[in-house]
Amino acid sequence: MREEKSIEIQHVLAFNCVDFKYANNGSYVVKGLNFSVNDGEFVSIIGPSGSGKTTLFRLITGLENPSSGTIQINGHYTEKRLGSVGYMPQQDLLMPWRTVYENVVVPLEIKGINPRSQKEEIYDMLNEFGLKGFEQEYPNKLSGGMKQRVSFLRTILTGAKVLLLDEPFSALDAITRLAMQEWLVDKWENLKKTILFITHDVDEALLLSDRIFIITDKPITHFKEIIVPLGRPRKIRDLAQPEIITIKELMLKELRMDVDTYENN
């Protein structure tokens, strides 16, 4: 088994010549992939359905290991990556029998930390996340946006430097989704976490990201990288800038070509 190696931290996440294919399928999903993400970046990954976006997250979390190559998390190459990143899936996965407070403290309980030792800090964060007064409510009393805020706070409380968000707003209605996007921009700028964000929404990627990785081939051998030329803080109206509209049109053209490629394979 490969030994864990500590190296000088340059990136909080890096893939180094990573190959991967599932055991029951002879085709590679990832082949010779190299990329890195810097501390504090917000990077979105966008591509056609079935292109391997979720597989990338499974590799990062440690649910899967590369067939060859290495993955670096927080300056370490290791096969034991479970628990080293925070993960927020598409569905909130809140436990219906637990209150909001009891849901958000789950990561602390898993680590063996008594939530009472951090109760004041947790209540401060609940307040910051717009959940004050709902601490003892159950998930069925919450709106979709509030459930996602609870889920995101739970992800934050893992203590991980790298957070993986897998289409967290895809199930929300359009108005709530826009509100959550601006909310996430605000919270991320304060928290200074590194976020990788899977989305199918070009506007969402442009609003949130420092960089966007577009999956353009199958298997994934590289990304087409877009650097978003917007300062921070950002608002939805910033997407109306001519330069951003041009980038959006180029991205949509690229994604349409990718869909045609996938459908023909």
Automatic annotation (TrEMBL):
User: Which SUPFAM superfamilies does the UniProt record give?
Assistant: P-loop containing nucleoside triphosphate hydrolases
Q: Which GO terms describe its molecular function?
A: ATP binding; ATP hydrolysis activity
Tell me which domain of life the UniProt entry assigns to the organism this sequence originates from: Bacteria
Q: Where is the ABC transporter domain?
A: 15-242
Q: Which UniProt keywords apply?
A: ATP-binding, Nucleotide-binding, Transport
Q: Does the keyword ATP-binding apply?
A: yes
InterPro entries in the record: AAA+_ATPase, ABC_transporter-like_ATP-bd, ABC_transporter-like_CS, ABC_transporter_ATP-bind, P-loop_NTPase
Gene3D superfamilies noted in UniProt = P-loop containing nucleotide triphosphate hydrolases
Per its UniProt record, what PANTHER family does this chain match? ABC TRANSPORTER ATP-BINDING PROTEIN, TAURINE IMPORT ATP-BINDING PROTEIN-RELATED
What is the name of the protein in this document?
ABC transporter ATP-binding protein
